Automatic annotation (TrEMBL), chain B:
GO terms for molecular function: ATP binding; glutaminyl-tRNA synthase (glutamine-hydrolyzing) activity. GO terms for cellular component: glutamyl-tRNA(Gln) amidotransferase complex. The keyword Hydrolase does not apply. It is an enzyme of class 6 (ligase). InterPro entries: Amidase, Amidase_dom, AS_sf, GatA. Allows the formation of correctly charged Gln-tRNA(Gln) through the transamidation of misacylated Glu-tRNA(Gln) in organisms which lack glutaminyl-tRNA synthetase. The reaction takes place in the presence of glutamine and ATP through an activated gamma-phospho-Glu-tRNA(Gln). The active site is at K77, S152, S176. Heterotrimer of A, B and C subunits. It comes from Fibrella rubiginis. This is Glutamyl-tRNA(Gln) amidotransferase subunit A. Signal peptide: none annotated. Residues 23-478 form the Amidase domain.
Length: 506, 488
């Protein structure tokens, strides 16, 4: 819970500047648990019909419900419930059928009702896991399943903005009431890399499921980490410290490392770790304690009497299940088996749902699966990251890319020329690859008569080499082909040239 | 003389003896003449006149196509949201607040051509049994202006009693409609929990709060219930059961082959020392009349009676402590101004605004509720009270397995003197005030419907009420029975 008068106090310098000697990092292990908040991409809010969208003018998505006017009542958003269930199903969690929302009472200006509607007992998803492959603190890769404690549904608070007016805090209630799921892991992570891999996987999952845009910078995906340390071999948990203010996966990883180091150093220098909330300072790469007036908040949870329990019937659950999109692991399997792709390709292509969907669309029109994969992993991905295409469609259609692959396969254009054509396709998506190749004079010359005269010229210019070739120096073939290609200004079909030269010299 | 039933209003409107405008003008005159009763906190004189003219025009145009409440002049307790109008729940903390939406119940009254004449004084946030905790000052009982009208819907009951409007819409969390109705000699109905949407009702205790009508006759409250009740997409706790024609409800008479009605009466209501002798006598009189009419009337006792008030106060204050958190001075209503030169501090702003904005009764209940929900006492108070609430429901259900109605006096005493139970400087026991709700809270703890109708007067000439309670959603028979007893 954020308090208003929070001044970060920096921990003593010597603790931060002391270098961790290698034996210490092998003496202690980190015990890490994550709390991940995902803003759900529903059209309306968790308990009101107000629009739920990022980036609107302040206080334009606020109804009497959001602003907690007297007499206003909440009404649960069923789509948000479905989204939470999707995540639970994707993680193999047990789905709670009777969902009760509780009031978490505290005062803060960005919390209009004076309580947050959340799930205290009986979260919508219980248990479940997310498999990751990550490095431990010792640097070795291991496959591990991150165990979830639960996933619960709740509403977001508004935003307090402290940097507009020097004398006042401004409040924007657009975000107030935005549906959130909070995923809470068991304290089963052991390294910063595991935390990073887990978050990457969560982000990929929510995007696949279409329930959250997974944007840490904009805060639609937020992560708090709980870190404690213990000597290796000990099973009891140490005192945990919560670290907040983490706005990227990299910072989550940095914070875990920094906090682990701080706790080890503190312990080694005779200090005692206290249970507290610390903020990560990305510039300094350190965590700093928060000065809190109250040690413990009593949230006085009780079931909200304004809401009836949301009951998920068998039929509703079956419906949600039937509407589940394919998950990354299913598609990975499909790519490696049905399309025969190497693991590397499958992993890359399943990074984003859009990518693999595009891939499958291309493969629907070409049998050259590996070629399609190469195109996606190379030029397509490069284009995607070069242009920020998050908000608009990738201009080249799957059909056009398949057509381009066909042109190469038929020998109509060369690989090199295809790269040029692809660049043009991005700029002029309305024109077909064949049209573009023709207009740019990039079609390969497959006219045997034309090529034969070029070949005759080259062979006549290199009589001694021809002699050597005939005596067995077969690797001179490349020289002849290269010369012919040069003379054709790259337009000749190298395969055909190859064939014709061999015929001429046999 | 003011009209005492909607039927007579309708008859005179139909035969041209009066007009909506005439009615409104009469009520406005009486409101002005009875300003000392302090029943209204705001009167919408111009708006009501304008609406009356409009309605008269509509009737002239087509006397058939008029709403079911055409010509009914209604007052709203100051806890019902009415777009464009002030809404304060009798509290300073909402000073200057204008409602931005209209409660579903009020919306439905307006759709049936009711005329809203003003908003009515009440105990602050509907917390009280005497209407002495309002920021707008005390309301006086028209039967004796030195006495309280009951609460919390005191202004609403007095307005009907004194003929300042034909009907009022109040709210009942522990008896706030029935107890003042009894004190003022009018009819008050608390429907089944969830029968009327709470959208637009300022919350006191959400799982207890019910909107309820106050009028001169059971038929009038029945019609109002019929208009206001029913499903509403804005309240997820409202019932979707179809709404019966409550205003047409009848019980088959014994003569026409109907079975005798089985009435249980609470033995404490006629025997307990805590109930005034006049009220015991009046209640016994009602029992005797029912017996004489051939009904089955038998005594029952509730083993959990003594737990009703503690259960009620723990749960309602717990819910209230949370419901009233939104009144923090941040977005609307009263905000304390820092002393000149003083630094604005958030926590200080909260404390000051709420201390200045809330009166002592509300502050007391917020503190009680916060305590009941606090981690160290949660199980001992909140959880325990929830368990008792379930037991009370079970026991009440067992009573209704054998009976159609449960009969009690509405209150243990009649209207008391102003200050008699609320003088915080004198050695008054706040529990004495809370005991005024002893017979009414059961219906709120269980969610059952109950009605209070007049049952004579005491030796001081003060009104006495009698209460009938029925099983959930049995409003039809409850109203029919009340109608029958009312006529006797």
């Amino acid at each position: 819970m954020p308090m208003l008068n929070l001044l970060p106090i920096f921990a003593p310098m010597q603790a931060e500047s002391t270098v961790l000697t290698p034996p210490l990092s092998t003496t202690y292990e980190a015990v890490i648990g994550l709390e991940v908040h995902c803003q759900l991409l529903t059209n309306s809010k968790m308990f009101a019909a107000d629009a739920n969208a990022f980036g609107a003018e302040p206080n334009t998505q606020v109804s009497v419900i959001t602003l907690a006017h007297p007499g206003a009542l909440p009404k649960a958003n069923r789509v948000a419930v479905e989204y939470a269930v999707r995540m639970g199903l994707a993680c193999g969690s047990a789905i709670t059928r009777r969902n009760i929302f509780a009031r978490k009472n505290y005062f803060y200006p960005d919390l209009p009702k004076g309580y947050q509607l959340s799930q205290d007992k009986g979260p919508i998803c219980v248990g479940g896991q997310i498999p990751v492959r990550a490095k431990g603190f010792d640097g070795t890769l291991r496959d591990t399943a991150i165990q979830l404690h639960h996933i619960h549904l709740e509403e977001d608070a508004g935003k307090s903005i402290h940097d507009i007016d020097p004398n006042a805090t401004c409040l924007d209630y657009n975000r107030a009431g935005t549906p959130l799921i909070e995923m809470v892991t068991e304290p089963c992570l052991r390294s910063a890399d595991e935390a990073g891999q887990f978050l990457t996987e969560v982000r990929r999952l929510v995007r696949y499921l279409g329930i959250c845009d997974g944007n840490l910078e904009e805060g639609s995906l937020r992560c708090d980490v709980n870190v404690s340390i213990r000597p290796k071999g000990v099973t009891e948990l140490g005192t945990k410290v919560e670290v907040k203010n983490l706005n990227s996966i990299r910072n989550v990883m940095r914070a875990v490392d920094a906090e682990f180091r701080r706790q080890v150093m503190l312990t080694e220098t005779g200090g005692r770790i206290i249970q507290e909330t610390r903020l990560f300072d990305a510039d300094l790469g350190q965590t700093a304690g928060m000065r809190e007036k109250e040690t413990m908040n009593d949230y006085r949870y009780f079931p909200d009497p304004d809401l009836m329990p949301v009951v998920i019937s068998d039929a509703w659950l079956a419906n949600i299940q039937a509407g589940m999109p394919a998950l990354p692991r299913d598609l990975y399997h499909k790519l490696t088996t049905q399309y025969g792709l190497p693991d590397y390709d499958a992993a890359l292509l399943t990074e984003a749902r859009e990518l693999v969907e595009f891939y499958e669309a291309v493969c629907a029109e070409t049998p050259h699966y590996k070629a399609a994969s190469n195109w996606l992993m190379g030029p397509v991905k490069a284009q995607l990251s070069e242009k920020n295409l998050r908000d608009r469609q990738f201009p080249v259609s799957a059909t056009a890319l398949a057509a381009l692959i066909r042109l190469i396969d038929e020998g109509t254009i060369s690989q090199t020329a295809a790269q040029t054509v692809f660049g043009l396709m991005v700029e002029q998506p309305e024109r077909s690859p064949a049209e573009l190749a023709t207009a740019q004079g990039l079609l390969q010359n497959r006219n045997t008569n034309d090529l034969q005269s070029l070949i005759d010229g080259v062979l006549a210019a290199w009589p001694d080499k021809v002699e050597q070739y005939r005596k067995g120096k077969k690797n001179l073939l490349g020289l002849f082909v290269g010369e012919v290609m040069k003379k054709s200004k790259g337009s000749a079909d190298p395969k055909l040239v190859n064939q014709l030269i061999m015929n001429a010299l046999s | 003389m003011p009209y005492r039933s909607f039927r007579s209003v309708q008859a005179d409107l139909a035969n041209g003896t009066t007009t909506c405008r005439g009615l409104v003008d009469d009520y406005l005159t009486r409101i002005a003449e009875n300003a000392h009763l302090n029943a209204f906190t705001e009167v919408y004189a111009d708006e009501a006149r304008q609406r009356a003219d409009e309605l008269d025009g509509r009737r002239a145009e087509n006397p058939v196509r008029i709403g079911r409440l055409h010509g009914m002049v209604i007052g709203l307790k100051d806890v019902l949201s009415h777009a464009g109008h002030g809404l304060q729940a009798g509290s300073h903390i909402l000073s200057g607040f204008t409602a931005q939406f209209t409660a579903t119940a009020v919306e439905r009254l307006l759709a049936e051509d009711a005329i809203i004449i003003g908003r009515q004084n009440c105990d602050e946030f509907a917390m009280g049994s005497s209407n002495e905790s309002s920021a707008f000052g005390v309301v006086r009982n028209a039967a004796d202006p030195e006495r309280v009208p009951g609460g919390s819907s005191g202004g609403s009951a007095v307005a009907v009693q004194a003929g300042l409007c034909l009907a009022s819409i109040g709210s009942d969390t522990g008896g706030s409609v029935r107890q003042p109705a009894a004190f003022c000699g009018v009819v008050g109905l608390k429907p089944t929990y969830g029968r009327i949407s709470r959208w637009g009702l300022v919350a006191y205790a959400s799982s207890f709060d019910c909107i309820g009508p106050i009028a001169n006759t059971p038929a009038d409250v029945a019609l109002l219930l019929e208009v206001m009740a029913g499903a509403d997409e804005f309240d997820s706790t409202v019932s979707t059961r179809p709404v019966a024609a409550y205003s047409q409800a009848t019980l088959p008479s014994l003569a026409s082959g109907g079975r005798p009605v089985r009435v249980a009466y609470l033995i404490d209501g006629v025997e307990s020392e805590g109930v005034s002798p006049d009220i015991r006598r009046a209640t016994q009189g009602a029992i005797d009349r029912l017996l004489a009419a051939g009904h089955v009337v038998e005594p029952v006792s509730l083993s959990l009676l003594k737990y009703l008030l503690p259960t009620y106060y723990i749960l309602t204050t717990a819910e209230a402590s949370s419901n009233l958190s939104r009144f923090d001075g941040v977005r609307y209503g009263h905000r304390a101004q820092p002393a000149s030169g003083a630094q604005t501090d958030l926590v200080e702003m909260y404390k000051q605004s709420r201390t200045e904005g809330f009166g002592p009764e509300v502050r007391k209940r917020i503190l009680l509720g916060t305590f009941a929900l606090s981690a160290s006492y949660y199980d001992a108070y909140y959880t325990k009270a929830q368990q008792v609430r379930r037991l009370v429901r079970d026991e009440t259900e067992r009573v209704f397995a054998n009976y159609d109605f449960l009969l009690t006096p509405t209150t243990p005493g009649s209207a008391f003197r102003l200050g008699e139970k609320s003088d915080h400087t004198a050695e008054t026991d706040p529990l004495q005030m809370y005991l005024a709700d002893i017979f009414t809270v059961q219906a709120n703890v269980t969610g059952y419907p109950a009605i209070s109708i007049p049952n004579g007067t005491d030796s001081n000439g003060l009104p006495i009420g009698i209460q009938l309670m029925a099983p959930p959603f049995a409003e039809e028979s409850l109203i029919a029975m009340a109608e029958r007893m009312f006529k006797v």
